[in-house]
Design brief:
The protein is an alpha/beta fold. The protein is built from 12 helices and 5 strands. Helix 11 links the parallel strand 4 (236-240) and strand 5 (261-263).
Length: 281
């Protein structure tokens, strides 16, 4: 059986160019177009496929550990390249099934003539299939990591939008807070307020919470900490938009907003700073 496996493996290696061409013909047009669209040349694609088919063939008669390393390295490189260039995971996985297809086609004639025993072909399958499965697993891992990065970037961008600081004029800005404030967002408000106030060289920051439905002890403490930290930086903070129900709840909870400069509306805060409405005659 060892001689038969070597014969099969060597035949795959010897015909890797032809098999790679057959593989290209089976691939989705969209797959090849996207690879070309992102500057991946045809010769590079053929080189990947020829190497992969060669390693699959060598796995039948060479050291398994060495071949495993080669296949993992090649699959990782290909997986990262196609993932970064917009190829879907569905197409990537499907391409591996085509590899299996073109390889087995090599032995159609021998199988029809009963040249190989069923035990030999079973051994071939037991060697080749785990390698192809490993490639699919590697592709899946790479796409999972890439998708997580995209989600993290999108989430970070969304977080930044959830805590905006809007400049009014030089040295003055408004931070409008809308929606629920949990522990994570509260920390984000603190960090954003301090970082951007320093970066924008603010003298006044108006913290508007008219869009906040609930202010509990945790939120109140963080607001206090933000105001005190900004004061150390030389930034005067004015809190606006305190809703009546929040004020009532704060009193029941024993939360003291007396140390914070508060105004009912954003307009009042701006007026205190020195903004006045100008009417055209």
């Amino acid at each position: 059986m060892k001689e038969e496996l070597q014969y099969i493996g060597e035949k795959i290696v010897q015909n890797n160019n032809e098999l790679a061409k057959n593989l290209s013909e089976l691939m989705y047009i969209e797959y090849n177009q996207k690879l070309h669209q992102y500057g991946i040349e045809e010769y590079q694609i053929m080189e990947w496929r020829m190497k992969l088919i060669q390693y699959i063939g060598e796995s039948l008669f060479k050291d398994q550990q060495t071949i495993t390393k080669k296949i993992i390295n090649l699959a990782t490189y290909i997986g990262k390249t196609i993932a970064e260039n917009g190829i879907s995971l569905k197409h990537a996985i499907k391409s591996i099934s085509f590899v299996r297809h073109v390889i087995w086609n090599v032995f159609t004639e021998e199988l029809e003539q009963n040249r190989f025993s069923p035990a030999t072909m079973l051994s071939v399958s037991k060697i080749i299939d785990p390698f192809l499965d490993e490639i699919c697993y590697i592709f899946s891992q790479i796409y999972e990591v890439q998708n997580k990065k995209k989600v993290d970037i999108a989430y970070t961008s969304l977080e930044e939008l959830s805590v905006p600081i809007v400049p009014i004029t030089k040295g003055i800005a408004v931070m409008p807070i809308i929606g629920e404030i949990d522990t994570h967002r509260s920390t984000l408000i603190m960090q954003t307020g301090l970082d951007k106030s320093a970066h924008m060289e603010l003298s006044h920051l108006i913290l508007d919470i008219s869009g906040v439905q609930i202010v509990d002890t945790m939120v109140a403490n963080n607001l206090f900490n933000l105001v005190q930290s900004l004061r150390i930086l030389g930034v005067e903070t004015i809190l606006t938009g305190m809703r009546p129900e929040i004020a009532q709840t704060s009193v029941r909870l024993g939360i003291d907003f007396g140390i914070i400069n508060m105004k009912a509306t954003l307009e009042q805060a701006l007026e205190e700073i020195g903004f006045r409405r100008v009417f055209n005659k």
